[in-house]
Design goal:
The protein is mainly β and 276 residues long. It has four domains: 56 residues, OB fold (Dihydrolipoamide Acetyltransferase, E2P) (Beta Barrel); 62 residues, OB fold (Dihydrolipoamide Acetyltransferase, E2P) (Beta Barrel); 58 residues, Nucleic acid-binding proteins (OB fold (Dihydrolipoamide Acetyltransferase, E2P), Beta Barrel); 64 residues, Orthogonal Bundle (Arc Repressor Mutant, subunit A). It is built from three helices and 18 strands. The strands form four sheets. A five-stranded antiparallel beta sheet has the order 3-2-1-4-5, with no helix packed on it. The chain has a five-stranded antiparallel beta sheet with strand order 8-7-6-9-10, with no helix packed on it. Helix 1 packs across helix 3. The chain is elongated and about 85 Å long.
Amino acid sequence: MIHLGQKNTLEILRESDHGVYLIDDEDNEVLLPNRYVPDSFKIYDKLEVFVYLDNEERPVASTDMPYIMLNDFALLRCNQVTDYGAFLDWGLVKELFCPFKEQAFKMKPGGWYLVYCYLDDKTNRLVASSKTNRFLDNSELTVDQFDEVELIVSHPSDIGMNVIVNKIHAGLIYKDDIFSDISVGDKLKGVVKKVRPGNKLDISLGQIGYRNIEPNAERIMHELHDNSGFLNLTDKSEPEAIKVQLQMSKKNFKKAIGTLYKQRMIELKPDGIYLV
């Protein structure tokens, strides 16, 4: 089957005045216009192409790959606005259409907008929407606390920056966890800092290397995150206080904080342990 909005690996079937026709395993054909035909080729050669609808609503193939594909997010520039909606530059000859009803804010030529690309059921056309939140779902999470995740910066809020998590869920990075400039559309790596009631995801930037440290050190890192980055324990704390708070011996505690300190994951101060 030939898939609109996605990469397809198809065979060259035959030549025509307008280009070459490509075919899939189910004998479906699509035209690859002359501008994309390789200088040299043989019948039955395989090509990787992107398929979409041309200006006459016919499937057409391109060896150029767009900036966004079906069911994905990307930051795109608005080229023009007409009576029907906005047209975005997605790297192909035919621009990507974003109707007015799919614009979170009215688009303007020259502006950059984070959009989601989907297939319109009525027209079978690829369409953009800047109302990205409606394509995210936190009802059933596919991530858990401390999981490493892929992020796309979505839009700012009063308390931080909203992010798209693994292209599926909505998350939030609080202002206190942002230590460098980030902008809408940036693609980053992060960690699920906490799962709050209602499956709300708090996200931290960067990678926390818990999986590479021994269990006691991992337990301390978990406790630090659950206590806003601070534990009122030191290497001089009483063994009973350490046991009550961390369920480990003082010997194991000192070994674990030594490991974390060497990896520059914590700071040791007279009043306790601080998360870096």
